[in-house]
Write a structure and sequence with these properties.
This protein is an alpha/beta fold. It is built from 20 helices and 15 strands. The strands form 2 sheets. The protein has a 9-stranded mixed sheet with strand order 2-3-1-4-5-6-7-8-9, with helices on both faces. It has a 6-stranded mixed sheet with strand order 10-11-15-12-13-14. Helix 4 runs antiparallel to helix 6. The chain is globular, with a radius of gyration of 27 Å. It starts with 7 loop residues before the first helix and ends in an 8-residue tail after the last strand. The N terminus and C terminus are likely disordered.
Length: 539
C-alpha cells in the first residue's frame, strides 16, 4: 500500500499516531533531558553520563523496544487476514509497556528533580517535533515496503532517543544563544543602573554555598544583601537571580560561581564584574569534565583574574587556594586555622553540638561559638569573616552573626529524632569534604554508621579516591552501607585493606533500600552519617 495515496483515514491515523508517539517520546526522554540539564546544557556532561552508567538507561529502552516489537509481530501474525486495521492492535502492548516504563521512571527518587524551565520546554518541544517526524516517516516507509509490520514500526522508535535528544540540543543552541543574550543584556542593564552595588564572587571545588550563607548573615548586619539562592551558580542561574531576585535597594550581591568547564567562571565575571572574591579551595571535583586538577585550578583562577582593586580571600587550609594566594599580586587576604593569617581561628573545641573557638582578624581577637559542625565550616567562617571585616562589619557584628548561623540543609547538618543522631552531608561530596564529614562523625560516641554511594565525577581518579575513602571510613565507622554499584568495589577494597569487618559492609541498590536496612539495624544510640547522594545522572 502506498501510504501517501492511502485513504484519508489511514493518513489521519498516521498523523495522530505520530503526534501521540511524539508525546510518549518526550516522556521517555525525560532521563536524557534531565542529564543535559544537570550538566548545565553541556554535551560533555551527557557523554560522561553515558560512560559512567555504561548506557544502562539505553539498555532499558532496548528491552522496551524488543518486547513491544515482539508483541506487535505476534499479534500481527495471529490477526493476519482479518483486515487492514489489524496492525493497530499490537500497538496496545507498546503503549502499555511505555506507560509502565514512564511511571517507573517518574516514581524513582530524584536528588534534583527535572526543572521545567522555559529552556527545557523549548528543548522538549524540539524532541517532540523530531520524534513525531521520525515516527511518521517510518510509518510511511514500512507501510510501503514492509506492510506486515505497518504501524507496528512505532514500537522501535524509543531507540532513537539517545541520538535525538542531543540532536535537539544542538538544534536549540542558536535559539538559546539569542535568548541568553536577551536575558544577559537585561541583567547587565539592571546592574548598570545600580553603580553602587557591591558585587562579590565566591568559587571553589567545595564550600561555596556554606560560605555564601555565612557571608550573607555577616553582611546583613550592615547592608541590604541579595544572595543567589539555592545553588544558582550557572550563567543562566545567575542571570535569573539578577533579573528576578535583585532589588533596586540592595547594596550587596553575593554570587556563587560554579564551573564544569573552562570559561564558565569567566563568563559569570563578565556578567557581574565582581568587586571582591572568595576562593574556598581547589580539589579534584568534576574531573570527568575538567580532565585534570590543573584545569580545575585554572577555572577557579578566572575569578581572581577578574578582580581589579577589591579584596580576594584565600583558604590557607587548601593547597590549591594557597598556591593561588602565593601567585596573586592583587589585594589578597589569607585565612585559615592555627596560623599567622589575617583571619585566623585558634583554640578550637569541636563537640557534637557545634564548636567554640577564638577568631582573630587583623590582630584583634573575639571568642565565638557556632552550631555549625565540622572543621570545614570554620574555614568558611574565617573566609567570610575576613571579607565582612574589610567591608566594614565590626568584630561584635561578626561575633553575633557567627552565634546566629544555622546549619545549611544537607551540608553536615545535625538531625536528632527518636534517639537517633543523623549527620546529613548528602548534598554532594568531594575528597576534602568527605574527610571533614568523617572527622565530624569521629566526635560522637556510640555505634557509627556511614551510608554512602562514594565519591563521583572524579574521572580516572574515581576508583583510587574511593579506595582511600574506604580506608578513611574504616578509621571511624563501625558499619557501612554502600549505595549502588558505582563505587562498591573501590570502597570495599579500601575498607578491607584497613581491616574492617566484612560482615559490617552492607550493599544496597538505592537510598530508600539503605533507609529500610537502617530501620532493621537500629538498636538505639546510633550515629548515622549520610555522606553524598548519587547525582541523578548516575541513576
Amino acid at each position: 500500500m502506498n501510504f501517501l495515496n492511502a485513504t484519508n483515514l489511514h493518513l489521519y491515523i498516521g498523523i495522530v499516531l505520530s503526534c501521540v508517539n511524539g508525546v510518549i517520546m518526550c516522556l521517555l526522554s525525560s532521563k536524557f533531558l534531565h542529564v543535559i540539564q544537570l550538566s548545565g546544557y553541556k554535551i560533555g556532561g551527557y557523554r560522561a553520563y553515558l560512560k559512567e552508567t555504561k548506557s544502562s538507561y539505553i539498555g532499558r529502552l532496548v528491552v522496551l523496544c524488543f518486547m513491544s516489537l515482539l508483541c506487535v509481530l505476534v499479534t500481527n501474525s495471529l490477526l493476519d487476514g482479518y483486515g487492514e486495521f489489524y496492525s493497530y492492535i499490537g500497538l496496545i502492548f507498546y503503549f502499555y509497556f511505555s506507560i509502565v516504563f514512564i511511571i517507573n521512571v517518574y516514581r524513582a527518587p530524584q536528588k534534583t528533580p527535572l526543572k521545567q524551565t522555559h529552556r527545557m520546554q523549548r528543548l522538549t518541544f524540539v524532541v517532540f517535533l523530531l520524534m513525531s517526524g521520525i515516527t511518521f516517516v517510518l510509518i510511511m516507509l514500512f507501510s510501503e515496503y514492509v506492510p506486515f509490520i505497518r504501524f507496528g514500526v512505532v514500537a522501535i522508535t524509543p531507540i532513537f532517543l539517545p541520538v535525538v535528544v542531543p540532536l535537539a540540543h544542538f538544534i536549540c543552541i542558536p535559539m538559546e544563544g539569542a535568548f541568553r543574550q536577551i536575558y544577559k543584556s537585561r541583567a547587565k542593564k539592571k546592574l548598570a543602573n545600580m553603580p553602587n552595588l557591591i558585587k562579590i564572587g565566591i568559587t571553589g571545588s567545595y564550600g561555596k554555598t556554606t560560605t555564601k550563607h555565612i557571608l550573607n548573615v555577616m553582611l546583613s548586619t550592615k547592608y541590604k544583601v541579595c544572595m543567589s539562592p539555592h545553588s544558582f551558580n550557572t550563567p543562566m542561574g545567575l542571570t535569573k537571580v539578577i533579573n528576578n531576585y535583585l532589588d533596586a535597594n540592595d547594596e550587596v550581591l553575593i554570587a556563587e560561581m560554579g564551573a564544569r568547564q573552562m570559561g564558565d567562571i569567566a563568563y559569570l565575571c563578565n556578567l557581574i564584574h565582581p568587586k571582591h572574591a572568595i576562593i574556598t579551595g581547589v580539589s579534584n571535583q568534576h574531573l570527568a569534565t575538567f580532565g585534570s586538577v590543573e584545569n580545575v585550578y585554572k577555572a577557579k583562577h578566572e575569578l581572581v583574574d577578574a578582580i581589579d582593586d577589591g579584596y580576594i580571600c584565600f583558604n590557607a587550609e587548601n593547597d590549591g587556594s594557597l598556591r593561588m594566594y602565593n601567585e596573586c599580586t592583587k589585594n589578597k587576604i589569607l585565612c585559615g586555622l592555627n596560623g599567622d593569617y589575617f583571619s585566623n581561628i585558634t583554640n578550637i573545641k569541636a563537640t557534637p553540638k557545634g564548636s567554640t573557638f577564638d577568631l582573630t582578624i587583623d590582630n584583634e581577637t573575639i571568642s565565638c561559638s557556632t552550631k555549625l559542625l565540622g572543621i570545614s565550616n570554620l574555614e568558611d567562617i574565617a573566609l567570610a569573616g575576613a571579607l565582612a571585616y574589610k567591608m566594614g562589619v565590626n568584630l561584635l557584628g561578626i561575633q553575633n552573626a557567627i552565634a546566629n548561623l544555622k546549619p545549611i540543609p544537607h551540608r553536615i547538618e545535625l538531625i536528632e529524632e527518636n534517639g537517633l543522631t543523623i549527620i546529613d552531608d548528602s548534598f554532594n561530596a568531594s575528597t576534602q569534604s568527605s574527610k571533614n564529614a568523617l572527622d565530624t562523625l569521629a566526635l560522637f560516641e556510640g555505634t557509627k554508621i556511614v551510608v554512602t554511594p562514594g565519591l563521583v565525577e572524579l574521572g580516572d581518579k574515581e576508583y583510587e579516591e574511593n579506595v582511600v575513602f574506604g580506608e578513611n571510613i574504616a578509621k571511624v565507622a563501625n558499619k557501612v552501607i554502600i549505595v549502588n554499584k558505582v563505587n562498591k568495589q573501590a570502597i570495599t577494597t579500601g575498607l578491607l585493606k584497613s581491616g574492617f569487618d566484612e560482615n559490617n559492609i552492607i550493599e544496597v541498590e538505592t537510598l530508600n533500600d539503605a533507609k529500610q536496612k537502617l530501620e532493621e539495624m537500629l538498636e538505639g544510640g546510633e550515629v548515622v552519617l549520610f555522606e553524598n547522594d548519587l547525582p541523578d545522572n548516575y541513576i
